[in-house]
Write a structure and sequence with these properties.
By secondary structure, the protein is of the alpha/beta class. The protein is about 35% helix and about 20% strand.
Length: about 170
């Protein structure tokens, strides 16, 4: 079974007034909408991840305050949120660290539906996308990374992460 994982396409990352917005981040929204639409048509499991922090999260020693739980900045962007309303095969993952597996029930969801292949998209390529793909590959799950539906604030680190996912982790990058 194949699933789609949409990583952190949240207001604080991809909206121009977001706490960790970077130029060009919004360009992932349209391709992600397309991937979600296709996944719904194909009745696939869809998982969204959301960075979801307490106001005093230790991560804020490294990064500006962002994606504080239950705030507008932590919400999935509206076009994707609307698409997923009422979709019965949709699961939300709230995470506090880079990997979508750390402290979440993602393993449980993937196991419950016998997921062996995953399409991945979202932000930030060299952080949350990369560390989630690494964990998926460690579990023997086949991964396809949709490069046009990923983005980073650092073009060199984006290229490096894409290369690492392809050449070291064995993900297909399209």
């Amino acid at each position: 079974m194949r699933a789609l994982i949409v990583i952190d396409v949240q207001n604080d990352f991809v909206q121009k007034n977001g706490a960790l917005y970077f130029t060009g981040a919004e360009r992932v929204v349209a391709p992600v909408v397309g991937l979600v639409e296709k996944a719904i048509e194909d009745h696939k499991i869809i998982v969204t991840t959301q960075d979801w922090h307490d106001i005093d999260d230790a991560e804020f020693a490294m990064w500006p305050v962002h994606c504080v739980k239950n705030t507008p900045g932590a919400e999935i962007v509206e076009p994707i949120k609307k698409q997923l309303e009422g979709y019965e095969r949709y699961f939300k993952i709230y995470k506090t660290r880079y990997s979508a597996f750390y402290g979440t029930n993602l393993d449980e969801i993937l196991n419950k539906f016998s997921i062996t292949e995953v399409d991945v998209c979202g932000v930030v390529t060299h952080i949350c996308v990369f560390f989630t793909v690494e964990e998926l590959r460690n579990r023997g799950i086949k991964v396809t990374v949709h490069e046009k539906a990923t983005a980073s604030y650092d073009s060199e680190l984006h290229k490096f992460a894409i290369r690492m996912m392809r050449e070291i982790l064995g993900a297909e990058v399209i």
